[in-house]
Design goal:
42% of the residues are buried. Helix 9 links the parallel strand 8 and strand 9. The chain is globular and about 65 Å long. The protein is an alpha/beta fold. 41% of the residues lie in helices and 17% in strands. The chain has eleven helices and ten strands. The chain has two domains: 229 residues, TIM Barrel (Alpha-Beta Barrel), CATH 3.20.20; 28 residues. Helix 5 crosses helix 6. The chain starts with a strand and ends in a 10-residue tail after the last helix. The longest helix is centred in the C-terminal third of the chain and has 18 residues. The strands form two sheets. It has an eight-stranded parallel beta barrel, surrounded by seven helices. Strands 1-2 form a two-stranded antiparallel ribbon. Bound molecules: 3-methyl-2-oxobutanoic acid. 3-methyl-2-oxobutanoic acid binds next to strand 8.
Length: 274
């Protein structure tokens, strides 16, 4: 499937395209996005997947955890992102409380996301405990991405944001959950904050694309929260994060410059008025 825009041919990224990328050893790029303007830029830059993450709860709304964001708020962010994109695949997080009850609730929440935002797929945190919901959503025709390792919706159960599955027992459990998600029909799995050696084991055994965030170099692709990657956040400094811009400082500088120009009467000048 392809669309033409300004004489360029953009191939649309599908779940099948992602599988083919894994099979030919091409790494998959993924970032989060929550609004139209940033999604336009990230899609134009050629990102493969945009995740409308429930991290919007942190970086957009200023909450301490991902738990408070609602289904309506996720749909608002997802619809804004969908209006922007031409090429990438858009995955939307099912927020806390919208799927844990039972598989019917999970399907109803997914249907709302798909109908009201136009998204392409959903992501859910968990393994064995959400399998019924995963299967029901996939049998309704919606691709599902899994999420294992550090699952922020369970932060109060874990108690910390430390690396998960360092011990063999938890690593085995994670591997088994990855197998179950693959068998249930997930098109991909995110692994968050686990040892690189475990990321490698999972990516080697599991045939669907494994996308890591703090899961090392051997997985099939990487995802970062856009605000972290662009340096909009100053305070969050985990080892796995590489910053590609220092937007916090750049925006501070630009804003100070603007304030000075306004105060001094330099802005607007005669060319910047009617
Ligand atoms: O919500 C989010 O941003 C995520 C990523 C950390 C994978 O789930």
């Amino acid at each position: 499937m392809s669309v033409h825009s300004e004489n360029k041919e953009f191939k649309k990224i599908t779940t099948h395209a992602l599988l083919a990328m894994k099979q030919r050893g091409e790494k998959i790029s993924m970032l989060t996005a929550y609004d139209f303007s940033m999604a336009t830029i990230l899609d134009d830059a050629g990102i493969d997947i945009l995740l409308v993450g429930d991290s919007a709860s942190n970086v957009m709304a200023g909450h301490e955890t991902t738990l408070p964001i609602t289904l309506d708020q996720m749909i608002y962010h997802a619809a804004s992102v969908i209006r922007a994109i031409k090429r990438c695949l858009v995955v939307v997080d099912l927020p806390f409380g919208s799927y844990q009850g039972n598989s019917k609730e999970a399907l109803n929440s997914t249907i709302r996301i798909m109908k009201e935002s136009g998204a392409h797929s959903v992501k859910m945190e968990g393994g064995e405990e959400i399998l019924d919901s995963v299967k029901r959503i996939i049998s309704a025709g919606v691709p599902v991405m899994g999420h294992l390792g550090l699952t922020p919706q369970s932060i109060y159960k874990f108690g910390t944001y430390n690396v998960r599955a360092k011990e063999e027992e938890e690593a085995e459990q994670l591997l088994q959950n990855a197998r179950l998600l693959e068998q249930a029909g997930c098109f991909s799995i995110v692994l968050e904050k686990i040892p690189a050696s475990l990321g490698k084991r999972v990516a080697e055994e599991i045939k669907i694309p494994i996308i890591g965030i703090g899961a090392g170099m051997h997985v099939d692709g990487q995802v970062l929260v856009m605000h972290d990657m662009l340096g909009i956040n100053k305070e969050f400094n985990p080892r796995f994060l590489r910053r590609y811009l220092n937007m916090y400082e750049q925006i501070i500088d630009a804003t100070k410059h603007y304030i000075n120009d306004v105060k001094s009467g330099d802005f607007p000048n005669e060319h910047e008025q009617y």
